[in-house]
Amino acid sequence: MIRILVRYSVLFVLTLLVLTALSFVLAYLFPGDVLVNLSGITPENEVQRDALVRQYRLDQSYLIQFWHYLQQLMNGNWGYSFTSGLPLREEVGLALPATIEISTYAMLMALFIGLPVGYYAGIRSYSLSDRTINSVSLISYSVPVFWLALVLILFFSLELGVAPLSGRISLMFDIPSVTGFILIDILLSEHIDHGLALRDALHHLLLPTLAIGTITTAAMIRITRRSVIDVLQKPYIAAARARGLSRPQIFVRHVMRNASLPILPLMAIQITTLITNAMIVETLFSWPGIGNWLIQAIYQRDYPALRIGMLAVSTLVISLTILVDMFNRMLDPGRERFERGAI
């Protein structure tokens, strides 16, 4: 286990170095003057230009510039946003938890709905109910998330008026950001009606979570169904039937655990899709997450925000992927014991 932890740690560090190098190169790929892209300041004279050049080490080699950039990141000095003038570390600290929150709720929806339905479809494989579930999940997984979000907005917000159109919580509530998760911050807030604020926040969460969670749930159903069908074809299932075990006994003792093991690595693959869908949905519901923040940075040509946002999202995806795979290895230590960690 220690060897696996070391390998994953090395993999994580090397991946972060590559991502950091890519974000560093972005400053030279953006259109315009590199100095203006980094500082947001157009030098008025040579003295000001020389001062900025020395500040960003542009008068030195690329390797020295990258090392300076890496030191600034590690020290928490991520630069400033051109549009707001606020430190990028603070802005990412506000936007990223909002994306993690909505993605977490969508994943919980997939786990609590997708796993039981997938198990049921696998147990009843190739029956009418299985074919119906399989068809619905295939259609749901094929629907573009932006189209589904627009349909939900049109039907539930504009036609029925039962869900808010945008935002995270109504303007009547002043919730200070402590953890970045709106439901937790409401519970930690004082001098407000917690019940009313929680209901309002849940109403705002409903449609974005449903849009993201529907596609994630469809993927979970298909993954679980395929895993259960594969397990049912194993020789030990036939041996259990020969011993006279009932269907519930076979499911609890053999199918559930063995079918769950292949699901976790496939869940790690779905993390990228989940975060991407969350970032797309944020722009449609004006959810103050990292996706909506990056879109605004693109419109404003806020280049420091773009490269820091790219680095933050990439680090999040890589971290979650490695954690899920490590958790899977803890549950099944004998699986591919000597294989090197890979994403």
Automatic annotation (TrEMBL):
Residues 96-324 form the ABC transmembrane type-1 domain. Keywords: Cell inner membrane, Cell membrane, Membrane, Transmembrane, Transmembrane helix, Transport. One of its GO terms (molecular function) is dipeptide transmembrane transporter activity. The chain crosses the membrane at residues 102-123, 135-158, 205-224, 263-285, 305-327. InterPro entries: BPD_transp_1_N, MetI-like, MetI-like_sf. It is a multi-pass membrane protein. It comes from the Bacteria. Signal peptide: none annotated. The keyword Cell membrane applies. It is found in: Cell inner membrane; Cell membrane. GO terms for cellular component: plasma membrane. Belongs to the binding-protein-dependent transport system permease family. OppBC subfamily. This is Peptide ABC transporter permease. It comes from Alteromonas halophila. The gene is dppB.
